Amino acid sequence: MHSQNRISSFSRKPLWLRLSVYFLLIYLIYALLAGVVLPAVLKATVPDKLTDMLGREVTVKDISVNPFLLRAEVSDFSIKEAERNENFFAFQALTVDLGFWQTLTSFTPTVENIALHAPYVQLHRLTGGENTRLNVSDIMDTLAKNAQPEEPETAPEEQAGIPHIRLNHFTLQNGHILLSDAVTGARLDYPELDITLTGLDTLATITEQSGKSADSPEAKSSETGSSETDNAYAFQLNTAEGGKVNLKGDFQLSPLVFNSDIRLSDIALAPLWPLSNDIIDVELTDGRVDLALAFSLFEDNASLNVTVKDGSFGLHSLTLARQDEPKITVPALAVDGIEASLADKSISVDKIAVADMQVNALFDDDGLDLQRYLLPNTAPSTGSTPPATSTQASGSAGSSSAHTPASEEESGWHVVLNAFEFTGGEVALNEKAIADNMFWRIFNINLTTGPVDSQFTSPVHYNLALSTSGNPEGFATEATGTLRSEGDIDVTAQQVKGALTLEDFLLSPLQQYISTYANVVMESGRLSTQSSFTADASGTADVNASVSLADLAILDNQKKAPLLKWQALDVANLAFNTTANTLSIDNVMLREPFAKLVIDENKHTNISDIIVSRPPATEDSGAVSVQAAQEESAQVEGAENEESDTPEKTADEKSQLAITVNQISIKNGNAYFADNSLTPRFASGIESLNGTVSQLDSISGKAAAVDIAGKIDNYAPVSLKGNIDPFSDALNLDLMFSVSGAELTSVNPYSGTYMGYYIDKGLLSLDVQYKLQGDALEGDNHVVIDQLTLGQKSDSEQALSLPLGLAVALLQDRNGVIDLGLEVSGDVDSPDFSFGSIILNAIGNLITKAVTAPFSFLASLVGSDDTLNEVTFAAGISELDDEATATLTTLAKALKKRPGLRLNIEGTVNAVTDAGVLAEKTLQDRLLTLSGARALPANLTASSYPVEGPLSDALKQAFTETLGISVEEERAKIIAQLTPSTNEKGDSEQTKQTPPEIDETRVQRALHIAMYNSLRSNIDIPPGQLAALADRRAKAVKRYLSNDAAIDANRLFQLNSRHHLQEDVSGATLTLEAD
Questions:
Q1: pTM
Q2: Burial (0-12, 13-18, 19+ Cβ within 10 Å), 277
Q3: Ramachandran area for residue 222 (φ above 0: left; ψ -120 to 50: alpha; else beta)
Q4: 897-933: per-residue pLDDT in tens?
Q5: CB 528 within 8 Å of CB 548
Q6: Distance (Å, rounded) from C-alpha 204 to C-alpha 227?
Q7: Quick check: 402 and 395 in contact, CB under 8 A?
Q8: Which 8-state DSSP code applies to residue 812?
């Protein structure tokens, strides 16, 4: 009853009071439910529901709702990892303030504030490959398993618009993101994340349709009621390495506009690098990135457009290492002034600058190590040819079509780089493939370019400078050469034009490569060149250059002695042109050249072993060679097939390179020769070599002029003059080589070894002229040896067996001069041909002819062909007749021309004829004595002997006394001989008859002849008498030569003929010997 009274009493209260009470009561119930009951229910049920939904443990410390401020807050929320008691996702607090009154007044759902404090998430890749699993994959699987199948919705006929929602303020503070990859070991930690979103309005318009930024005056006045702070955002992310990522800007949803000022500073790249471990074989140990740009994305005519302005990119302290060894370092790379537009397909960069980049590489038998390390381990394969291939193929069909501008729709991106700078670069290369171990440095690399336009409407100007060094012991700090080049590259015309300068490039570092092929030491040498060039992709080149190779010194690797050197080799005004196929050189100057040739004790020269013998190829290399040969053969056959379809080359295309050299000059050259195989050793040199070779021309057919002079041992002039055409198909030359007054004593080692005598004195002058046309050589040699004096005889086993002293005496005139003219010829195509051999053979033949037929040689001196080595006497006579005196007169003339000759005279007899004459003379002397006559008749012979008188009586007396036979007995024999003979029967009867009468005169004549001949035959001439005859003959010859022909008697020697009497010829035999 009491309660009813209260209700009745309350119903009678004023309406306003009753409404106020009702409203208060409802508000209290709302506050109780929203502020107490709802948080308790949510705290009790939400974690379990989420746990069941996600398959993970979900915890919430507290959930609170402020019903008065319409604010909800969740604190200490976390989702655990599936297998670890760690948070997968968590935050300290999430606060949401609903803008109830703004929603009511603007009729737009509005949220006043959303604040997320200290959110944390860690995302891990657990496995890779096709079955990639993340630490969130199980959540996705659970959600998919628990999801109810949805019925397909009928698509609306008209697309719904964007709902109008407002969020006045959103903040995310102190966020933490941790990313890790169990496959690669990468770990990315971002401990600080802050996001701010201000004035989100899904229907707000911040830009005009042109895409201008909200900061522009046009955008600010474009929409009434829009705020400068609508849809503004700020994003800041700090990395564990101290890097910062800042994004600031605004956006709108329709039409889509997104503006951002992006700033990345000091972003470390090393934590990202493990993601590429399975791609390349190097490690990025350091490197940081900076980026700043103004980015805009907006819809333009139903398409998206992107613009980038005021962009800059920086890369600092980049280091790529391999096994803790830095391979590539980039201290600084800066890209400034980046502008880009997707609509215009344009990118513009003010400058790219790379500073102090260093590359360390190894080149060995496996190739360049960086190529192996930086190329991807597995390259993706594609089933179709990229479009670029067909584009290039079509572009190569013709140069005109390749460079025709494309239409607006078909045009590609237009990229412009206004400047490129590469400064302080360095490449350190350890080369082991060719050399054993060589360290090369290319440093102080500075490269700059002018504007580079992807349309290549104008040539690209470049400027390059660098220094080089090489050392087999380690990387050197000092430069061994510098190179500079400047020019223009015309990509459209595929042409490059520029200048190149190489200064003081040292050749000594090349020793590691030279020693592989030659046994020499490149002790020094500096190569310099200045050139201008033009070249294009078709192979056309035009080069103008000057080249200098200074201070060259090449040593013999065996003795470490100079082999070849010069002060400078200067090539001036070299011009090479492939279009005209010409190479012209104005002047080649060789200053102070020196060459050395030495023969050692084993007769090996210092150049015979220069080329290093290469070992024979192994089976593997041989197989490779065979395979390469087969491939090359296939290529050649293919090329021949292609060529068969093309017209033959024109004469100009087949023409040889036209070479012209205006002049080659030698200044103060020297050459040294030593032969240590001789005893004593020989050494000589040609010094003060100066001269020129002028007008070398491979086209005109004119011979070049040669004029070179020097001195042997710096005193005896030597010269080479004439003409030579080295470019003709068959070498043509006309050269005169001369030597004046060379001291022959300097060649004593050769004369003692090969001639058998040392030389005490003598000078050599030589004029040699050779003409070569085709393969026919003709030579005219004029050799003059003055005052040649042979000295001591050597004991050389290699000496010639010729009597050299006699040869000298035969060849040397009265003034002590040997003057020889030798004409030689030969076939240069003969395998045995050599210039030295034909000269030596000619001289050898001359000496052999002289010493083997010295008298013929003497006869030739006076224009005679008489035989001068024999003087003929009548039998038994020692007096010279006219023929003998004529022979001796000719001989005397020749001897006067050769005062170094001595003449040996040996008298000879004929044992038969001379003895017979002497026996007859003895008989006649006895008969003269016995007859008492004063003289015998002239020309007395047996047949003319008187048959009566004193001489007849003397003959009879001598016959009887000498032979003991009476004259009558001899007479009877004569008569019997003169009586005619009969047959035997007649003979028996004849004995009984008187012999027939015979003419007495006839009997007397026959009797005296018989007695005379018997007495002469009975006389025996003793050897002494024949020797005396020979002696008288020799004296007669000597007497005539000395007295009548005025030959010095000291040059005439009579040989003793008594002990070795020559009994074959009636005369005198002459021989010669040197004085």
A1: 0.72
A2: middle
A3: alpha
A4: 888 889 999 999 988 888 888 888 888 888 888 888 8
A5: yes
A6: 9
A7: yes
A8: B
